[in-house]
Design a protein that fits this description.
mainly alpha; globular; single chain; 13 helices; about 75% helix
Length: about 270
């Protein structure tokens, strides 16, 4: 083999480096796109909310939705006619959806307690969540749609293609957590990202991730109104409500796990 050809062949060390960083660039791109696509409407939302709060929240909600066509545009440039792999919408049984909702509710008290413990013991700086400015509709509906299409749709498929399933799951969950702008909430958001990503990998569909994200944001918003995170005061009773939510999720999972119920609900026996 000529010397020029030998120099062009990557060695084993280069292969290891390439494998180690496979998908990292795509993961960083997710963070950029989440901030880039909605930017014009986010700016308009901030201006409008100073004098017309409802208009500002509507624009914030629409800003989140602009992520979806932006991601599909990126997917088309990456995969051409196969762009639909960024939007896996295979049907799933109602049993799978029931497991998703109850699993998120059961996990929620753990995530909130973890957040509270980190805030009290470590004292990491906490920043305002960027989603706080988009209003209730944006948080409960806009963010789940936009973020799931971006992270668990395109991001999971693209990084899985480049670096494998495990790397895709970990990287999308990590960037998802970092994108929420709070070191205090990062561990809990990372765990939620892992759960939602695992659901998509198991079912081949974004529907459980949409529902799980909607459930998480909606429940956290309601519980946060009782006493905003992470500074919970047990004397005000907010922990009671949080623990009741978790207990309801665990009880529901236990009921669905029983053979009598599991065999009657479509989707629970099917392989996901």
């Amino acid at each position: 083999m000529p010397e020029a050809e030998e120099a062009a062949v990557p060695g084993p060390g280069t292969d290891r480096v390439n494998r180690a960083f496979a998908g990292v660039g795509a993961a960083l791109g997710l963070f950029v796109w989440l901030n880039l696509f909605p930017l014009p409407l986010v700016i308009a939302s901030g201006i409008a909310s100073k004098s017309h709060a409802h208009l500002g929240f509507l624009l914030g909600f629409l800003a989140m939705l602009t992520v979806v066509p932006g991601v599909l545009w990126v997917a088309k440039s990456a995969w051409g006619e196969h762009w639909r792999r960024a939007l896996p919408l295979a049907p799933v049984g109602p049993g799978v959806l029931a497991w998703t909702v109850l699993g998120v509710l059961a996990l929620l008290p753990v995530v909130m307690a973890w957040t509270w413990a980190i805030d009290r013991t470590v004292g990491l700086p906490s920043f305002r969540d960027p989603l706080a400015s988009v209003g209730v509709l944006g948080v409960v509906l806009g963010a789940p749609i936009a973020e799931e299409v971006l992270f668990r749709g395109y991001g999971l498929a693209r990084i899985r293609e480049l670096g494998g399933e495990r790397r895709a799951l970990l990287l999308t969950a990590l960037v998802f957590a970092l994108a929420h702008g709070s070191w205090v909430k990062l561990p809990g958001t990372f765990v939620i990202g892992l759960l939602l990503g695992w659901l998509v990998l198991r079912t081949g569909s974004l529907w459980p991730a949409f529902l799980g994200h909607f459930t998480n944001n909606g429940a956290a918003l309601v519980l946060g109104r009782l006493n905003p995170m992470p500074s919970f005061d047990p004397a005000k009773g907010s922990w009671t409500a949080i623990l009741l939510v978790g207990a309801a999720g665990l009880a529901g999972l236990a009921i669905l796990w029983s053979p009598q119920v599991r065999g009657r609900i479509r989707g629970l026996n099917a392989s996901t």
